[in-house]
Amino acid sequence: MSHFESPLREPLITGNKTYRQITDDIVHPTEGTPGLVWLISVGLAGLVALFGVFCLTWTICYGIGTWGVNSTVGWAWDITNFVWWIGIGHAGTLISAILLLFRQRWRTGVNRAAEAMTIFAVVCAGLFVLLHTGRPWDVFFIFPYPNTRGPLWTNFNSPLLWDVFAVTTYLTISLLFWYTGLLPDFATIRDRSKPGTFRWNFYNIMSFGWIGTAKHWERFESLVLILAGIATPLVLSVHTIVSFDFATSVIPGWHTTIMPPYFVAGAIFSGFAMVLTLMIVARKIMGLQDYITIAHIESMNKILLLTGTMVGTAYLTELFVAWYSGSMIEQYAFANRAFGPYWWAYLSMMSCNLIFPQFFWIKKLRRNIAFTFFASIIVNIGMWFERFVIIAISLHRDYLPSSWTSYAPTWVEVGIYVGTGGIFLTLFLLFSRYFPVVAIAEVKSILKTSGNQYRKEQMEEVKDQPAYHDADARLIYKID
Amino acid sequence: MSTKKYLVGLFDDDHTLLHAIENAVEQNMEMSDVYTPFPVHGIEDKMKMRRTKLHTAGFIFGLTGTITAFSLMAFANAVNYPINFGGKPVFALPAWIPIMFEFTVLFSGVGMVLTFYYLNNLYPGKKPEIIDPRLTDDMFAITFDMTKDSSNKSNLSEFLKKEGAVEVFEKEF
Asked: Could you tell me if A462 and A341 lie in one domain?
């Protein structure tokens, strides 16, 4: 047993599950013919994705002149959406890496889906980076390689280049982390199907021939722990570097040292919101309520509350520092955010991100599924507006009033954004159909400590033992 | 191909399995392998397994990454093409730290995962020797190698049954 856990803690697996039932429940959605709901959802998401691809092609054919960007507002929806997607892509690795290091058992219920979501979100984010260059066919120029143009190397002092390395590294490591965790579960699916069938062969290839010997598991645990150890600073570095894109520039509203922690908190905030949005629907449709329990949702809501409050504090700190700096231009940038032509975006950001999560101080609301779902959508919207406020609003009125302008997206930009939503959903739906959505092996490994029937046994064991209160006045029972 | 023969004891509980492993090691029985559907903590200690050195590999890969990134940037920006970016020094070590870090993580992660696959001999398309399909579901197994010497078979199956194995059978590959 890895560590002691108080029997008073809420069980993380309910329904008196056995190992066999865990396998059945999680593998079941991947078996049989797909349901009508799934087919219709994939069809719709696929159509939206196709429209996105159409707008993307349109951009490539006619250039970014088809967008609403201009020489004053050079970054708008493209980078807003890039940062939004990258932010969403932060929850998965946070859940599986940081929560693993912190020994948070509730991560096992949601880590698989969150990691998948991370990868899909980073793919969507990558599309925007690719497109915003204007000449996506020349995009290999951003990688340093010996060439005949000089040799002309990339500028390693530029945060934009750091971003290239940060995002690609993040995608690679997340993918490896996710896939290695999937091997044993693919083997489980393989062993449930008939040898020799297409299904058996497919999942055997996917599982790399995993059979689960003790030595394999020992290496597996070691690998996962160290990957978690290196992925933790990585996940923090990615959004830090994304924020450097802004913080190291000299645009009023961007040039602030608060950016890195503020962006990282915002990324975790939006990532968890998206995990909640997807998982609340998925647990219902796929019948996973015993693995993604109210306790899981409450834990994630607590993180929403924490990170939302951090982000809110950053908003207020920014305002204070702008005033305190005594710099007229800095002060104007923030006054313009709140009272300028885009006041509605600023108001949405403030109310969605700063005010709304405060409802989660109330336990009843943290444990209310309908409210949580609603709140997670609100946070997703709010975090989109945050990026729009930072990027487009800061740019549209900068130092030279003669170049002040406004910005509105064209149908192409909106189409690409909506399209990435479709791509994201299509990938997620395919994932939920063919992959085990919950980490089977990991859930089994916590069954005897966190399953409800075992909790009951633990309570029986400690019932007659002397209890004591620790510093936080929590009731602690000594067992073993 | 010579056939491999194993004596398999199937267990339905991880605690019984741990206990059986402990006794097998105590009685100097040479287990061929242990199979579990999920990582059971304590097996590696009970089996007196040599601890994996995967983390050392990870460290070396990481260091390779750091050095690669540093030398690439130093060569490109300070030696091969020392361009003046706004009067900043060409040898700009602080500005290189982010990429050095990313390379460290990238090399360490990719290297470790590949080493993991290599050591475990896992690759797409591998034909696995599946002792029993329930071993990735809810069963645990201890196997003894019977290929060369099957003289103590009855002893071993007796032992497995005594330790609480729900099924004892032979498996050939």
From this structure: no
Which CATH number is B39's domain given? 3.30.70
Q: Give pLDDT, residue A311.
A: 93
B43 contacts A214 by C-beta, under 8 angstroms = yes
Is pLDDT larger for residue A108 or for residue A128? A128
Classify residue B78: in a domain, yes or no.
Answer: yes
Yes or no, beta carbons of B49 and A151 under 8 Å apart: no
Q: Where are the beta strands (DSSP E) in A151-305?
A: none
Instruction: Report d(CA A280, CA A264) in Å as an integer.
Output: 24
Strand partners, B9: B142, B168
Q: How many percent of chain A have pLDDT more than 90?
A: 43
In chain A, the number of structural domains is 2
Q: Same domain, yes or no, for B144 and B113?
A: no
**Which pair of tokens denotes residue A3?**
């560590």
Q: Which range of residues forms the domain containing residue B84? A: 54-120
Q: Is B125 part of any domain?
A: no
Q: Is residue B148 part of a domain?
A: yes
Q: Does B31 touch chain A (CB under 8 A)?
A: no
| Chain A contacts in chain B segment 74-93 (CB below 8 A) | 76-77, 80-81, 83, 85, 88, 92
Of A96-110, A301-315, A353-367, the least confident: A96-110
Q: Give, for B167, the enclosing helix (H) or strand (E).
A: strand B167-172
Same domain, A8 and A44: no
- Look up the domain containing A8 and give its range: 1-17+451-480
pLDDT tens by residue, A374-417: 999 999 999 999 999 999 998 998 788 898 998 999 999 999 99
Place of tokens 């201009």: A70
Q: Does the pLDDT value for residue A476 go beyond 60?
A: no
User: Measured in whole angstroms, how far is the alpha carbon of residue A287 from the centre of its chain?
Assistant: 23
Contacts of B72 in chain A (CB under 8 A): 144
Whether the CB-CB separation of B8 and B170 falls below 8 Å is answered with: yes
Q: Is B48 on the interface with A (CB under 8 A)?
A: no
- Please check whether residue B147 is in contact with residue B4, taking contact to mean a CB–CB distance below 8 angstroms: yes
Residues A181 and A35 reside in one and the same domain: yes
Task: Report the pLDDT value the prediction gives residue A473, as an integer from 0 to 100.
Answer: 45
Is B27 within 8 Å of chain A by CB?
no
**Gap between the Cα atoms of A399 and A106, Å rounded:** 49
Q: Do B38 and B66 sit in the same domain of this protein?
A: no
Domain contains B168: yes
**Predicted complex ipTM:** 0.92
Mean of pLDDT values over A136-144: 87
Contact A180 B88 (CB under 8 A): no
d(CA A88, CA A83): 9
Same domain, A398 and A470: no
Q: State the Cα–Cα distance between residues A110 and A85, nearest whole angstrom.
A: 19
